[in-house]
Amino acid sequence: MNSFQMITRSKTNNRVARPGKRYDLVLAGTALVVACLLTGCARSPASRHYVFAPREGWQQVAVRDSVSSDYTIRFALVKLPAYLDRPHIVTRTSDNEIVLDKFNRWGMSLSQTVTELLGGTIARQLTNAYVDVITATSSRQSGYLVQADIVRLDGFIGGPVELIAQWQVTRGGSDPVVLIQRLSRFEVGSTEKNIAAYVEAVRELVARMGEEIADIIEQDRETLTP
User: Fold this and answer.
1) How far apart are CA 15 and CA 155, in angstroms?
2) What digits encode the pLDDT tens for the residues 52-62?
3) According to a count of CB atoms within 10 Å of the terminal CB, is the N or C end of the chain lower?
4) Is residue 102 classed as helix, strand or coil in its secondary structure?
């Protein structure tokens, strides 16, 4: 055997040994991937948070002080049914089935969100009123108290969305008077099949309810005007 043959065999032997090392590396890589999956390296999508877009111009008309306003409108805490009293946005897939969307949530308490939008809508319509959306904190006696219980607020993505609420308006003062107690139903269609359009439909429903409440207070103010 010459030296050339010895060198060739030595290289061949080295090559034979390498596949075993490669196999070990494959096993190690597979184990790393499995461990990564078990420990959460594959992350689920981040949650998205939504609030109502304000109606045009309400921020400006809502900025006023209680002293210079003719009267005050206060809110009791808006009550929600248990299935809505959660951060998840709730939609329907059928008349008998709801879905709690863990990836699409309200950016703040739905009760407070509804209160703020009701207050903003009323303030936009009743320009002489001071609207207190920090529930029932005003010390002024001559005003109105709005109470609302949401019965249903849900619907279909890309389909009809419904609000049913029982609400009451009381005129304050030394002799409080319940002006109205009403069960109202509102419905709008979600314009597109996505969650943003669904949230916009919910906002429109709450705004319509605010307009209805404002109409009652406005009518009462006209009866009080000499």
Assistant:
1) 67
2) 876 655 565 55
3) C
4) strand
